[in-house]
Amino acid sequence: MEVKTGYLYHIKDEFFDIVNDENLMTNHERGKKRPTYFTIKDKNILWFIPISSKVQKYQKIIDKKIQKYGFCNTIFIRKILDEDSAILFQNAFPTLEKYIDHVHIKNGAPAKVGNLLKEEILNNFKNLLKLKKRGYNVFFTNIDKIKEQMLEETKVNS
Predict the structure, then answer these.
(1) pLDDT of 122-156, one tens digit each?
(2) pLDDT greater at residue 32 or residue 62
């Protein structure tokens, strides 16, 4: 499978068992593969950013952050596949291609976001990673530990 930035994928349960991070979002909801992830390909690592349909829930969080800080860069509400969706940067994590279960399909084709939204997501995510390097961590999971674990796994398997 060729993994591409900007496409939507689902992840295997095996990843969550191996990583064992209690701050990762759960993979299943009512028997369906959830959530869908916006994917960023970065050399050997893939970054997965969860996409949620629970817009009202996340809008309340956004509103509280805006009230407190004047902005919110950890959650965006945007149209994805013609539906309002919450893009959960705060829940992003690194993984490997082998943990992808399947690409999300919409109308018989692999699902992806539009180019403008893709660029907006990429720019915001890069900025959040820069903030983390400067000591301001907005991510719920320990992305450094998970990335190290994934890179170790690529060394062992090569």
Answers:
(1) 999 999 999 999 999 999 999 999 999 999 988 87
(2) 62
- Residue 2's pLDDT is 84
What token pair was written down for 87?
């893009």
What average pLDDT does the chain have?
91
Distance CA 111, CA 119 (A): 16
Instruction: Annotate 46-89 with DSSP letters as a single string.
Output: EEEEEEES-HHHHHHHHHHHHHHHS---SEEEEEETTEEEEEEG
Give dist(CA 19, CA 113) in Å, integer: 27
Compute, in degrees rounded to 10, the torsion defined by CA atoms 151, 125, 31, 108: -100
Amino acid at 84: D
Contact 103, 7 (CB under 8 A): yes
Alpha carbon distance 44, 94 (integer Å): 10
Q: Domains of the chain, with CATH numbers?
A: 8-156 (3.10.129.130)
Q: How far is CA 150 from the centre of its chain?
A: 16
93 three-state secondary structure: strand
Tens of pLDDT along 10-50? 999 889 889 988 888 766 554 455 689 999 999 889 999 99
Identify the CA nearest to 51 among candidates 87, 6, 24. 87
